[in-house]
Amino acid sequence: MFRTLLAAALLALGLAAPTAAREITHVMGVTEVPDAPQRVVILTNEGTEALLHLGVVPVGAAQSWDGDPWYDHIAGPLADTVPLGTESGINLEILAALEPDLIIGNKVRQEKIYDQLSAIAPTVYAEDLSGDWQKNYQFYADVLGLHEQGAANLAAFNTRAAAIGASLGDSINETISLVRFSPGRTRIYYKDTFAGVILDKVGLKRPAPQDRQEFAEEVQKERIPDMDGDRIFYFSADADPEEAVANLAEWTNDPLWLNLEGVKAGKAQRVSELVWNTGGGIYCAHMMLDELAAIYGVDPQAVTD
């Protein structure tokens, strides 16, 4: 079945591919991509947000981590987009049947299927996820021939983040701790994370144990003191399954947690897992700025996008 669909997709691509093309250098090599791709497939959540923000609606996309199949804030424009399975479980048969003229993926998630994807359509990969969302956004813009628009959109975001930071007054000197609680794995998030990059753009600092240009570290309860900060932002599963609720309660009722200065000051706050972590794209980045502005009581539209 897959071979039949793949052959059909390749035939259609050969008949309909634009004659104009550009060479794109990416983590997997050099690929010729069409100048004006019409049927784009994107294989990461943050990439889906980037494409929509750039005005490109993909014909197929990796489904949202939570959603049926899309996050609520992007479901509207994706009404006709075909879900392709999760980032780590792409359905190649469905993808091939879409006859894309460009596939955009990520080495972290789809390295093993690069050759199969490349046999369907020109395929390019971003290298990493974690804190690379802005780098990836510009990469997607470049691949789509929208370099200037991508650069302008990122500049607008960074200007907005800096403006919110400037409106914080003395609060800009607070240190911010990031923690994720999930059953079986609790992690302290460092600077090379989606939320960590945004805090840096705002100008907020991290506590000394978290001032590391790394992603995250799994910890046990004896490391709870390293979770302290002037403010502590923590996230857990938004859907609140029973196991996640019990796990969160276990950690946040531990005596070491209750003794943290940020907790005793009433400045430990649960925030959205989607917005601060799993969404990972530019819409969620702006939503995180909205949440930060609300928490600090400043105007979220000091600078708009």
Description of the structure:
It contains 14 helices and twelve strands. Helix 2 (45-53) packs across helix 7 (133-143), helix 8 (147-166) crosses helix 9 (194-202) and helix 8 (147-166) packs parallel to helix 14 (282-296). Helices cover 41% and strands 16% of the residues. It has helices at residues 2-16, 45-53, 72-75, 92-97, 107-110, 114-120, 133-143, 147-166, 194-202, 242-252, 255-258, 261-264, 273-278, 282-296, and strands spanning 21-26, 29-34, 40-42, 60-61, 82-83, 102-106, 123-126, 176-180, 186-189, 216-219, 231-235, 268-270. It has two domains: 2-145, Nitrogenase molybdenum iron protein domain (Rossmann fold), CATH 3.40.50.1980; 155-295, Rossmann fold. With 305 residues, it is of the alpha/beta class. It is globular, with a radius of gyration of 21 Å. The model is unreliable at 1-19 (pLDDT under 50). Strands 5-4-3-6-7 form a five-stranded parallel β-sheet. Strands 10-9-8-11-12 form a five-stranded mixed β-sheet.
Quick overview of this protein structure:
41% of the residues lie in helices and 16% in strands. It has 14 helices and twelve strands.
Largest sheet: 5 strands, parallel
Beta-strand fraction estimate: 15-25%
CATH-assigned homologous superfamily of the largest domain: Nitrogenase molybdenum iron protein domain
- Strand tally is 12
Q: Please report the number of helical segments.
A: 14
Under the CATH scheme, which class of the largest domain?
Answer: Alpha Beta
- H and E order: HEEEHEHEHEHHEHHEEHEEHHHEHH
**Percent helix:** 40-55%
**Class inferred from helices and paired strands:** alpha/beta
- List low-pLDDT spans: 1-19
CATH topology of the largest domain: Rossmann fold
Distance between the termini: 46 Å
The number of domains: 2
Shape: globular
Q: Evaluate the radius of gyration.
A: 21 Å
